[in-house]
Amino acid sequence: MQNPVFRTAEAESFFLRLYQDQLDQWPVPFEQQFIRTEQGITHVLSCGDETAPPLVLLHAASTANIVWKPNIEALAEYYRVHAIDILGEVGLSVPNRKNKNSREQVAWLAAVLDELGVDSAAIAGGSAGGCLALNFAIDCPDRVEKLVLLGPMGLSPTNLLTILKILYYVLFPTDKNIQKLIHWSVGYHPTVLETYEPWFEGFFQGIDSSYVTRPAKISNQRLARVTCPTLLFLGQRDEVIGPPHQSEQRARRMPGLERVILLDTAHLINYEMPAIVNEEMVKFLLKSQNEKTLSKHILNL
User: How confident is the model at residue 300 (pLDDT cuts 50, 70, 90)?
Assistant: First the structure.
C-alpha cells in the first residue's frame, strides 16, 4: 500500500477496482499523466485535441476525476480537457502530506497546471471542486478564463447542524447510517446510486479523510473578486449545499456571474442531468471563447 489516503491495502485495492471499472467505460481516448509536485503525485486524465483550448475539471469530494464520465465526450469535442484527481481524495493521486488550508490547495493546483503547460484555462468544478475553482479564480485571476460551478461548496452559509449530522454518521458507521449518509449526499437517482453506492460504502469504512482540504465558506469580499465569466448550476434537492436560493444570493456578489441554472437534482448535478449540463456548459464556454476571439480580432484590425 502506497497511498496514505487508504486505511488498509484492502481498501486501496477495492477502490482501484471501482476506479478501473469506470475508466474501462471512458467514452473517449485519453492519456494518463502522473505529475510530481511538492505536495505529492497528481493523476490527470487528458482528453481531446492537444491544440484545443484547455479546460480543467475538478471533481466533488469523496469522488474522483471519473465522475466526469457523463460529460467528457461533449467537452472533449471542443477542448483539451484535463480531469484532475484532487490530492487527498480517493482517486489515483498520492499525497505526501496533508494540505492545511485552501491557500496550499491553490498552490498545488497552480503547480499542476504549470507542469501541464497550462498558463490559463476554463475551469469547471463540482462541490468541493467548485470551492477550489472559486478560490483559484480569486487568488490566480489571470489563470482562469471562464468558470463553471456545479453545486459548489463555499457559497452556502456554514450549517452547524449539517456538520454534526456528518460527524455522527462517520463516528457511528452502521449500515443504516451509511445508507442515510449516501442518500443525504447524492440523493436517490438510480444511475448515481448504481455507480456511487458501493463507492461511498467503501469510502466511509476505508478512507482516511484527514488528507482532504475542507471546503470553507468564502467571504463576501473574496466573492467580489470573481470577475471572470461564470456559470452556476444549483440542484433544487441538494441537501449538501442546502436551499439553492441562499447559494444564489451569495453568488450574485460575483461580478462575473452570467447565469444561474436551477435543476431538479441532488448534489451530483452533472451525473443526474448530463444532457442539460453538457449542452449548457458547451454553449457557455464556446460563447465566451468566441467573444474572446472576436475581441482579439477587432483589436488587430
Answer: very low
Q: How confident is the model at residue 226 (pLDDT cuts 50, 70, 90)?
A: very high
146 closest CA partner among 75, 88, 216:
75
State the cell numbers at 5: 489516503
Side chain identity at 182, as an amino acid letter? I
Give yes or no for residue 294 having a pLDDT over 60: no
What pLDDT digit, counting tens, does each position of 252-269 carry?
999 999 999 999 999 999
What pLDDT does residue 292 have?
58
State CA 38 to chain mean position distance: 21
The cell numbers describing 296, all together, are: 482579439
Domain ranges across the chain: 9-300
CB burial of 4-27 (b: ≥16 within 10 Å; e: otherwise) equals: bbbeeeebbebbeebbeeebeebe
Per-residue cell: 193: 446510486
Question: What CATH number does the domain located at 9-300 have?
Answer: 3.40.50.1820
pLDDT bucket at 61, cuts 50 / 70 / 90: confident
Can you give the pLDDT at residue 299?
41
Candidates 162, 75, 176; CA nearest to 122 is: 75
Q: What percent of the chain has pLDDT over 90?
A: 68
